[in-house]
Amino acid sequence: MAILEVEHIMKTFDRTEVLKDISFSMEEGQVLSIIGSSGSGKTTLLRCLNFLEQPTSGKIRVNGETLFDSDSPETRNESEIRKKRLHFGLVFQNFNLFPQYTALGNVMLAKELQAKERPDYKNNKKAIHLEIEKEARMLLTKMGLQDRMENYPHQLSGGQCQRVAIARALALNPDILCFDEPTSALDPELTGEVLKVIRELAEENRTMIIVTHEMSFAKNVASQVMFMDDGHILEYGTPEDVFDHPTQERTRQFLARYNEE
Question: Which of 19, 40, 140, 154 allows an S-S link to 11, with CB 3.0 to 4.6 Å?
Fold first, then answer.
């Protein structure tokens, strides 16, 4: 069974169609790289999957559970949508860390907010907090930040901030980890740091969707590649299919431009 099924997703802002009949599916452990020009709808698609934007129409299912169906008003309930976001972990382009929290605090925050809804929270607050802290420290150590846990975002490099953001996205153990151009705000050296972490996650069979302009990364790490243009999916297949045997002229033009660079 597919871990993610997206059927006929449309998204309109005012009168502008940003996503136009988007359909695809993913199996557990797959890494999907989404490529395309700026304005092609890549980020909007991720935001719809994470329910930061609500699709105008279509369906989204994870592990067979319908998270969104434009024909079912109950799937639009805001309190339910907050729960559905837990299926996805999102790493933003510009980190979006909370400046008032340390690296450790940023990673712990979502889990602590979730824990407060547990019926046993008041009676076991200290033990629950210690367990959340232990897990957060393990994640930050995995990101190579064992010596920077007490630092605030302004005391960290861009690459370190992005690794904190990845740890934060992993904290709730999402079904699907999503990256929205995670290296576009970084210089080449820091880009390498972050891509190394993402490669390691891919080797752990994490299911991931990565919007990226790093063509070599998309070709060498992804199991599937999607090329978007003007709100449509123009190509979808293995890296070899998309990069070596594109079927659309628009895809060939896009890849030729990157090859020239």
Answer: 19
145 phi and psi, to 5 degrees?
Answer: -115, 30
CA–CA distance, 149 with 146 (Å, rounded to integer): 6
Q: Find the helix or strand (DSSP H, E) in which 150 lies.
A: none
Element (H, E) at 161: helix 158-170
Q: How far is CA 2 from CA 5, 55, 64, 66, 207, in A?
A: 7, 21, 8, 12, 11
Task: Enumerate helices (H) and strands (E) in the chain, giving the number of each.
Answer: 9, 10
Give the residue among 48, 132, 57 at the shortest CA–CA distance from 85: 48
Element (H, E) at 174: none
Per residue in 56-65, pLDDT (tens digit) is: 999 999 999 9
Q: Which tens digit of pLDDT belongs to each residue from 213-247?
A: 999 999 999 999 999 999 999 999 999 999 999 99
Number of C-beta neighbours around residue 134 at 10 A:
10
Summarize pLDDT for 125-149 with one digit per residue, the tens: 999 999 999 999 999 999 999 999 9
Residue 196 Cα distances to 76, 139, 175, 182, 217, angstroms: 37, 15, 21, 12, 10
Please answer whether residues 83 and 68 qualify as being in contact, where contact means their C-beta atoms are separated by less than 8 angstroms: no
What 3-state DSSP class applies to 104? helix
152-198: pLDDT as tens digits: 999 999 999 999 999 999 999 999 999 999 998 888 888 999 999 99
Cβ–Cβ < 8 Å for 34, 45: yes
**Rounded CA Rg of the chain:** 19
Q: What is the pTM of this model?
A: 0.93
